[in-house]
Fold:
Amino acid sequence: MRIIIFGCGIVGRSLLELLKVRKKELNISYGLAPKILGVVDSKGFAINTEGLNIDEILRIKDLGRSVGEMENYGKKGAFELEILENIEFDLLIDMTPTNIVNGEPALSLIKRAFSLKLNVITTNKGPLALAMPLLLELAKHNNVSFRFSGTVGGGTPLLDFAKKCLMGDKILAIRGILNGTTNYILTEMEKGKEFSEALREAQVKGFAEADPSLDIDGIDSASKLVILANWILGKKITLKDVKVQGIRDIRVKDLEDAKKKGKTIKLIASVNGEAKVEAETIPKDSNLAVSGSLNAVSFISQYAGEETIIGRGAGGKETASSVIRDMIEIRGLMG
Ligand code: HSE
Structure:
């Protein structure tokens, strides 16, 4: 499988590390033999149609430098999308940071990849939140695979569980905690910590977005809800269709009051007709009353009833494990 990787931050580097340490096992168990023909980061790129050495990529990134500085194959500066037309490869993996304003540069990258009949995996929520119905249509039209497991739930297979395991039933509604940062903040506030201190901790622990207002104001949860609604419920919605409210107005006192009544406050994303994100007071013994940075999502199906999946919703290795899951699936579809 010939691959070009875009984005070499925490998730990108974690993926390369996993591909390196799991090389033999991935080949024996799944027939996965990835060859990295190119890596692109924010300051340059490196291309070798014979395959780049993963150790060398990781070494240069560990030094805090760009892959554009790699010996022989590196080139500093912007990557022009036209370059893709001159390389023969099978899969483009986009792990660039989320841009929720216009989805760029990932949105144009994914569209170009589809037009070149390339399979795509992305962990970037921006293009999906803003243009998921269009992207799904384009992938279908060009007859390519498009997977995005890492965009929702980190390594927890929320999308796959609903899509595959609940196949044959009818999912009527989805409700869940889709953002680890706000869940961490609310959990800590329940213990008496101030909002700003809890947010600082979430940033240090690495859950928060580069711009944490995306977490706090519910935009990250809403983006993930758009992905679930499109992929699982077949709804053709984008971010503008979600009613969004964050957790800025919640005070320690609100959490204390809820606790006295055996309840807690959680930022719940739900789609049941209407798609919305809002802070809800729920019973302490509810399936969704998970603490810390955990995510939890309940799928309510017509026949199987309610099932809840709980797991870590962020992290480099966790999200990279989702990318590997997508790679194995695409490998299977390629025949
Ligand atoms: N900022 C996100 C969160 C990271 O807190 O859940 C994972 O998408």
In short: The first strand starts at residue 2 and ends at 6. The pocket of L-homoserine is lined by residues 154, 179-181, 207-209, 215, 220, 313-314 (CB under 6 Å).
